[in-house]
């Protein structure tokens, strides 16, 4: 059985592109995102929206006056939808096909970067997620900021029994052979035909990766502890930890 690779991730999102496009038009920014972006982004900043998908965060930021934006995503179908929405809104935003582990930009190209909706944790293997963090560090200007989200394996009490069972499965080597590390799971995708790969880290794991990539944590918070998101946001996304880190 083949391990999860980049092609699996692309295929997972290909069929759901239209669903994400609808969410882009309907949801806009979460309350938690509004807080983080308004606090840490300046309107004159050059901002890279990594894993931009169909442009939910990109378009919402543009409309709030953050107009020096570039979106990048791994999935062509998602970018096609983003381009359609940009044309519909008559907005001139570059959307680029690319991989977070090998960003097609020069060193120190951006003031800020974001990676919304736990996208960093949909990169298979810790070494590759750390590589993506190093790439993001590289393309940021000195003291540049990076805002992203992850799940937190130790935070959600509703899943403690699940992770205890998972640990026993991994200890005896009976996990899904396509996965790499404890914390890797398949979740239901946005379409019935597709499952989605996701890594659920601990806070310590994320801190270790950030240290290796030479980032300093400025702030982190668990979404539900500070914000009550609306029903549409909760239905579309699960709880997560926000990270604001500096090069």
UniProtKB/TrEMBL annotation:
Name of one Pfam family that matches: Methyltransf_25
Residues in Methyltransferase domain copies: 47-144
Keywords annotated in UniProt: Methyltransferase, Transferase
GO aspect biological process, one term: methylation
UniProt GO MF annotations: methyltransferase activity
InterPro entries for the chain: Methyltransf_25, SAM-dependent_MTases_sf
Signal peptide extent: none
Official protein name in the record: Class I SAM-dependent methyltransferase
Native source organism of the sequence: Peribacillus simplex
């Amino acid at each position: 059985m083949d391990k999860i690779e980049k092609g699996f991730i692309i295929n997972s999102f290909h069929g759901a592109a239209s669903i994400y496009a609808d969410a882009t038009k309907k949801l806009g920014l979460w309350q938690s995102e509004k807080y983080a972006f308004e606090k840490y982004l300046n309107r004159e900043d050059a901002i890279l929206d990594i894993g931009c998908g169909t442009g939910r965060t990109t378009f919402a930021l543009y409309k709030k006056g953050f107009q020096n934006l570039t979106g990048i995503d791994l999935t062509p179908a998602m970018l096609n939808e983003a381009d359609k929405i940009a044309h519909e809104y008559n907005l001139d935003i570059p959307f680029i096909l690319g991989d977070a582990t090998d960003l097609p930009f020069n060193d120190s190209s951006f003031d800020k970067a974001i990676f919304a909706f736990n996208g960093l944790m949909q990169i298979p293997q810790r070494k590759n997620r750390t590589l993506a963090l190093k790439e993001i560090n590289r393309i940021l200007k000195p003291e540049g900021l990076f805002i992203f989200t992850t799940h937190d394996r130790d935070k959600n009490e509703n899943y403690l029994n699940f992770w205890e069972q998972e640990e026993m499965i991994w200890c005896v080597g009976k996990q899904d052979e396509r996965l790499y590390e404890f914390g890797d799971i398949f979740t239901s995708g946005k379409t019935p035909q597709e499952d989605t790969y996701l890594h659920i880290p601990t806070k310590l794991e994320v801190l270790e990766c950030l240290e290796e990539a030479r980032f300093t944590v400025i702030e982190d918070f668990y979404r539900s502890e500070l914000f009550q998101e609306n029903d549409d946001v909760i239905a579309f996304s699960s709880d997560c930890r926000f990270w604001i880190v500096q090069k």
